[in-house]
Write a structure and sequence with these properties.
Structural class: alpha/beta
Distance between the termini: 19 Å
Number of strands: 10
Largest sheet: 7 strands, parallel
Strand content: 15-25%
Helix content: 25-40%
Order of helices and strands: EHEHHEEHEHEEEHEHE
Radius of gyration: 17 Å
Bound molecules: 6-phosphogluconic acid
Low-confidence stretches: none
Shape: globular
Strand order of the largest sheet: 1-10-9-6-2-3-5
Mean pLDDT: 97
Oligomer: single chain
């Protein structure tokens, strides 16, 4: 695993660097495979990046006709609910850029229950990556919870041990919002060619230190389990989130 840590002055610089990384990985992917498979993360941190990417000066650097969008995790709420990750992505980016129909794969949340949603999303992924043993996403964006969770893989939850599924349902974590989730699993996340963490704020500093320098395990800091078999991991940290690192 090739790991790179980039310290940013503040959240604005982090968003700018994230946009540049997305543009670069998109150019590489389209040059190599004529498509760019991008997994969006949820939460609040990425919104600044998505809004910046939607700005014409950046949006025009992306070939949206060859970009395919997925979600890393979702809250089991309607898409128009303020807590919806897909709703946030639409408001901040997807409704602004010209992505052709059928190239955005949100996690469904209109099923009877989260388990059905996870099964449906898994089927979507397996159909898209038909014939492949893993979902080789070109770029996966991830945030980091204060407790070291990524996507909706929460500390000590059974979802951490899943090896035969690409998407599963999960009960709420201990951090808000307290709603059921659907999340990609480690096998899906570690299939990524490039993983980009977007982490800002002093409330993340302990988890960042534990994951990058401490003796944490994936059980207590799930981000530790992000170890792509043949992929890169880049951490974009603002100074507040990096404040407890010793190097
Ligand atoms: C979610 C996210 C989650 C998020 C972290 C950090 O559904 O909440 O996918 O994994 O990335 O909780 O969230 P913030 O960026 O809001 O701190």
């Amino acid at each position: 695993m090739d790991r790179n840590i980039i310290r940013c002055q503040d959240a604005d610089e982090l968003a700018n660097r994230a946009v540049q990384q997305i543009i670069t990985r998109q150019q590489e992917a389209i040059a190599a495979r004529d498509r760019f498979t991008l997994v969006l993360t949820g939460g609040s941190t990425p919104e600044k990046t998505y809004r910046l990417l939607a700005q014409p000066e950046h949006a025009t650097a992306i070939d949206w006709t060859k970009t395919i969008i997925f979600e890393g995790d979702e809250r089991f709420v309607p898409w128009d609910d303020a807590r919806s990750n897909y709703g946030m992505a639409r408001r901040s980016l997807l409704d602004t850029v010209a992505i052709p129909d059928g190239r955005v794969f949100p996690i469904p949340t209109d099923t009877e229950n989260p388990e059905e949603a996870a099964t449906a999303y898994e089927a979507t992924l397996r159909a898209f990556f038909a014939g492949e043993s893993r979902p080789r996403f070109d770029l996966i964006l991830l945030g980091l919870g204060d407790d070291g969770h990524i996507a909706s893989l929460f500390p000590h939850y059974p979802s951490l041990a899943v090896t035969d599924r690409w998407a599963v349902a999960s009960p709420p974590g201990t951090l808000p919002p307290p709603v059921d989730r659907i999340t990609l699993t480690y096998p899906a996340l570690n299939a990524g060619r490039h993983i980009l963490f977007l982490v800002a704020g002093a409330n993340k500093a302990e988890a960042v230190r534990d994951v990058l320098e401490g003796g944490a395990t994936k059980e207590n800091r799930p981000a530790v389990g992000i170890q792509p078999t043949d992929g890169t991991v880049t951490w974009l940290l603002d100074e507040a989130a990096a404040s407890l690192l010793t190097t």
